[in-house]
Amino acid sequence: MDSQIQAKIDEWLAFDKNPITRAEIESLRDAGNTEELKRRLMKRIEFGTAGLRGRMAAGFSCMNDLIVIQASQGLCAYVLQNIPNAIERGVVVGHDHRYNSEKWAKLTAAAFVSKGFKVYLHKGIVHTPLVPYTVSKLNAAAGVMITASHNPKDDNGYKVYWENAVQIISPHDTGIAAAIEANLQPIAWDLHSLANVDNLVIDRTEEMTVAYLEYIASLSRTRETNPSVPLKFTNTSMHGVSRAIIDRANQVFKFKPLEHVKEQQDPDPEFPTVTFPNPEEKGALDLAIKTANASGSTYVFAQDPDSDRFAAAQKKPDGTWFVFSGDQLGSLFAGWILEGYKASGRPIEKLAMVASTVSSKLIGAMAAKEGFKFVESLTGFKYIGNAGRSLEAEGYNEGVLYRSQRRYKTWT
User: Fold this and answer.
1) Residue ranges of the Alpha-D-phosphohexomutase alpha/beta/alpha domain (predicted)?
2) pTM (predicted TM-score)
């Protein structure tokens, strides 16, 4: 065995306390599978502005218990160094329904608790937007969501939100990566420790969900007339987490109950009906459209598994379906916000909207004609979100943020 590979095997076995992933590496060692050991151990999974995301397996290049613990220890150290009153403000942790997600959320919480942090650990599966919302609502120091979003079933991830409730950007990514490297010795394996620190591990999931629903309801201008809307809607959660929050939001907005695609409505980490559970993928809406045709629905909605992407389709008079592009939906949302803003009588120059540089230029043209502020940002919702936060700090009241890959946000 190559000495460098053997050193990494020894390091892994010294750190890893999970018998399953230990056995994976031991089996590869015993079989003399140097190529696979090299792939698994010689290069560490990279921590970037999207946090971590990769295949679930043993090794430093994959997602597993050890990597999550080390990432959490590094993040904890970096937050302590860079955010005032971080321990008292606490961190927010949530997870989706994928394999290992619940366990990794608890391992993340344990790492922060070991340093005395207050941890708002969401109970049960949640949709990704609830984590940054909770960070903002509770003025937490940071947030972590365990999810691989729309990746295939064998993947999982570790998404980080900064104190501004937006995904991290440079220099935080490199700073956290360096802090992880400086805190590799795992100290937070014992999940039983969470049961003994009730004053530090706090569940405010329902309270935050209610507040979130009240917030999005405040954005509606038609709640009182929504019950009389004759349209029928079909929704697919793509085997993800969104059904519960979609149903509650539908009630808050006073719409009639929508129809769910039965084969895809419940959280299922196997994602049995789709290879890539992404509403952008060609054919992703086929089952939803089939369901809608059978029930007489004229609109189809879809969310990706962690419910931070949205897609929609409309049935045309000739019976065929039109699937809206990300740019088309973003422009529709922008037009809706603009219409309501103008009707409110507020100064148009205080309205702002943001889109990525690769998105449609239509909102920019709207801004030039109507007189509101439009900002283009780098591609990626982390950049769009941070641009939105900067506009808020400058005193802008309301807007739409979107990227062409069907991710949107409004704020007031």
Assistant:
1) 45-183, 211-315, 326-389
2) 0.94
